Amino acid sequence: MPSKEIIEKSEKELFKLMFPVGSPVVKEACEILSDLIKIDTTNPPGNEIVAAEYCKKLLEKEGFENIEIIESEPGRGSIICRWKGSDPNAKSLLLLAHLDVVPADPTNWERDPFCGDITDQYIWGRGALDCKGILVPELMAAIYLKREGYNPKGDLVLCFTADEEAGGELGVGYLIRNHFDKVNVDYVINEGGGFLLPFGKDTRDYVAQIGEKGVAETKIRVKGIGGHGARQLKPDDNAIYVLSKVIQRIIEFQPPIEIQDSVKETAEKISLPGIAKKILTSKRLIRPALNLAEKLLKQPLSKLIIPLVSDILNPTLLNAGKKVNVIPQYAEMTFDCRILPGHDRETIKGYLKKALGKKLFNKIEIIPIEPTQLATINSSKDPFYDLIEEIMNEMHPGAKIVPMLSAGSCDTKFFREKGVYCLGFIPLRYDFNPNMSFGELVEMEHGANERISIKNLSYGVEFLFRLIKRF
Ligand SMILES: [Zn+2]
Predict the structure, then answer these.
(1) Is 49 helix (H, G, I), strand (E, B) or coil?
(2) Deepest in the core among 184, 186, 300, 471, taking most CB within 10 A?
(3) Is 240 found in the same domain as 132?
(4) Cα 452 to ligand 1 centre (Å)
(5) CA angle 411-416-419, nearest 5°?
(6) How far is the CA of 100 from the centre of ligand 1 (A)?
(7) Which residues of 311-326 are buried (b: 16+ CB within 10 A; e: fewer)?
(8) How many whole angstroms from 54 Cα to the centroid of ligand 1?
(9) Which pLDDT value is given to residue 1?
(10) 86 and 111 housed in the same domain
(11) 206 Cα–ligand 1 center, Å
(12) Distance, CA 46 to ligand 1 centroid (Å)?
């Protein structure tokens, strides 16, 4: 929890901002976010078109032109609004956010997940952080500038899309494949970064997502001898027993640590003592040091840092048998595999070989589920990156933008694959969340009681307003 002194200091800094909490623009942003949360876009089925139409109406009312809703499938609407720039040679910028949300189980929530309640400090509901709470600052900043009579030099594209939470094939994936001309730009800004890191007393390090790990969802199938539940089989003929051995070996296996350039870039920039930087880039020290630091600092460090230096294999689904008196012919386990840049399915296969040993490895069949998505990454050396750092320095003096590979994956990958320069960066400060730890903030995305503080929402509007104007 940030100290009282830091909170007071940040209050003073906020006072200098154009869009402080309580200003009409921020009030409007709260209302829009509340409305959007109330539109249930749980994916599946998504039905994002209702939210897309809501945005379209707002934009039309403000005098925007070139607004289009594109449906990849009935109800799976994405909205694109291209604000034409005055100079066709100037660089163009696309503000990306997704309209869909993950399911919410109301039994775990303090409020209805789709209530959109606005309290003194927070706006509540699924999507408040991921990603309607990003969409609204993007929208509001553009609306405010339009009202001011501002005209962008290069095209400014607002693009709010369907299906991100299920991989994005019916949202950005569809747009890129079928309507690339409509979303073709030089730069993209999206979710995935902007978090103020919780290290140190008065930290000013913000993370920028410069890349995303790849996804190689994999199923393992073990075949056995099926039959009547009353028969006695040797353990090695019962697919469930064999799979349990496989699982045990995988639990004991750790994918190797690999210090890639992105981690070196992170270490170079991050405000940590030299020894911590050394550990972060040391293949040998990183795991034991993180375990120790975790105990001392009581922060979920391994969870956050290990995915940056290692492939992650997480079993997520198990499947065997249909009836209690029938021995199944096979047993299956499915993994969510997240791979580092340069890795692919062969890497995963190599891990399984190593973990299982020859005999057990020969008993499994490896089945890819979805097509492999390789990791995508761009450098932090770009004027756009520098501009973001400059703006954050005005908003939070001393701010440093720390480049980082993202453990997860979002829609930005589709643009990076096309060679567009992308950053995941919308500022989010944990010290702007009254009575909430950093850990709680991290758990809220896709978890229970998702909410965004009004301070953070206003901070997002402020940042995007400055970014568009200075781009
Ligand atoms: Zn998201």
Answers:
(1) helix
(2) 471
(3) no
(4) 14
(5) 150
(6) 8
(7) bebeeeeeebeeeeee
(8) 19
(9) 43
(10) yes
(11) 18
(12) 13
CA 133 to ligand 1 center in whole angstroms: 10
Compute the residue count for the chain: 471
CA of 284 from ligand 1 middle (Å) equals 33
Q: Are residues 250 and 168 in the same domain?
A: no
Model-level pTM? 0.88
Residues of the chain predicted below pLDDT 50: 1-2
Number of structural domains (the chain) is 2
pLDDT at 45: 97
46, 114: one domain: yes
Amino acid code (one letter) for 2: P
**Residue 403 alpha carbon to ligand 1 centre in Å:** 19
Q: Distance from the CA of 302 to the center of ligand 1, in angstroms?
A: 22
For residues 153 and 249, state if they share a domain. Answer: no
Looking at the structure, tell me whether residues 26 and 144 fall in a common domain. yes
Q: 312, 341, 368 — which closes off a domain?
A: 368
Q: Ligand 1 centroid vs 93 CA: distance in angstroms?
A: 19
Pair 320, 395 in one domain: no
CB contact at 8 A, 82 and 182: yes
pLDDT at residue 11, as a whole number? 57
Per-residue pLDDT, 3? 53
Q: Output the pLDDT for position 19.
A: 87
pLDDT per residue as tens digits for the range 350-380: 999 999 999 999 999 999 998 899 999 999 9
Q: What is the pLDDT of residue 14?
A: 58
Boundaries of domain holding 243: 215-368
For residue 21, give Cα distances in angstroms to 9, 206, 363: 16, 21, 61
Cα of 138 from ligand 1 centre, angstroms: 14
Q: Which of 368, 400, 423 is the last residue of a domain?
A: 368
| Residue 106, helix vs strand vs coil | helix
